[in-house]
Amino acid sequence: MRHLIFIGWTIVAVLVGAGFLHLLPKLGSTGKRLSESLCRAPGLDWVITYFTILPMFVGPVLLGWKGFFDGVAGQVAGMLLWQFAHEALNREAMRGPRILKVTNAKVGALPNCLATWLTAFATPIFWFIRLCTVFVYTPLTWLVGLPAYQGSEWVAVSRQKFAGLVGHDLIWCLYCDWMTGVWSLATEMLRNVESFWCPIKFYSDKKCDNCKIDFPDVVNGWTDPAGTMADVTRLHDEKYPFGQKVNAWFGHPVRLTVKGESPNTPATIVAPGEHAE
């Protein structure tokens, strides 16, 4: 009985939270500002944690390891109830073109549904990656001068503003909206880590070719694998001269000189030591 009660309360918490987010923009200018702040980091981080991660933690704390599954069941049921309600209130959009309709038609409803829900297992992983961008990467900006970033410019959601996107399509597009920003920010940070500490090309040409999209410095200056450690240290001295304030990856915008501005102070970068979130 305790497990059913917890699942029930989790469903209520999800629906109340969703209702609060729907209500906020209708509460005048203050509500609109608060709503907008919850659509980007760091406010969005709390929203994501509330809806996806908190039930997974509270369940085991209250009910032991089985409570984890209760938390997941409650949040999934709550999301599905919100989805059905949102679709019921937007019948006109439901009758029109939908992403779900076109993907179901192309791959089949059951495979499409299973594949979509399979991606949900990545949610805790992306949440953990987001934690790393804040609590692991941020100290690197203070310690070794890697460039800091405004999380709100990357981790944000806006697809709820797209006309006709309702129910199932809306919730999954918001999920993609969030995780794309998290992944892109983490990748950008990893570019700085790789080029600063390990600027050596891979022996595999195929790996270099595969990685050059996300890590442009593979073909933008990393030392040839047939080189020597002297080549690596010489490259490091060239790309990261002593006294440089921001140690960004080689192709980073911070290295571009803008007339009237220092190449180390672009508008999109936060100076090391400042809060990046």
Helix and strand topology:
Elements: H1 2-23, H2 28-37, H3 43-63, H4 66-88, H5 91-95, H6 99-107, H7 109-118, H8 123-135, H9 137-143, E1 148-149, H10 167-197, H11 205-211, H12 229-239, E2 269-270
Antiparallel strand pairs: 1-2
In words, what does this structure look like?
The chain has 277 residues and is mainly α. The chain contains 12 helices and 2 strands; from the N terminus they run αααααααααβαααβ. The protein has helices at 2-23, 28-37, 43-63, 66-88, 91-95, 99-107, 109-118, 123-135, 137-143, 167-197, 205-211, 229-239; strands spanning 148-149, 269-270. The protein has a two-stranded antiparallel ribbon. The longest helix is centred in the middle third of the chain and has 31 residues, at 167-197. The radius of gyration is 23 Å and the shape is elongated.
Strand order of the largest sheet: 1-2
Uncertain stretches of 5 or more adjacent residues: 258-269, 271-277
- The number of helical runs is 12
Reading the helices and strands in chain order gives HHHHHHHHHEHHHE
Secondary structure class reads: mainly alpha
Percent range of helical residues: 55-70%
Mean pLDDT over the residues: 92
Q: Please state the CA-atom Rg, rounded to the nearest Å.
A: 23 Å
Q: Give the strand content.
A: under 5%
Alpha-carbon distance between the two ends: 42 Å
Let me know the largest β-sheet: 2 strands, antiparallel
Shape: elongated
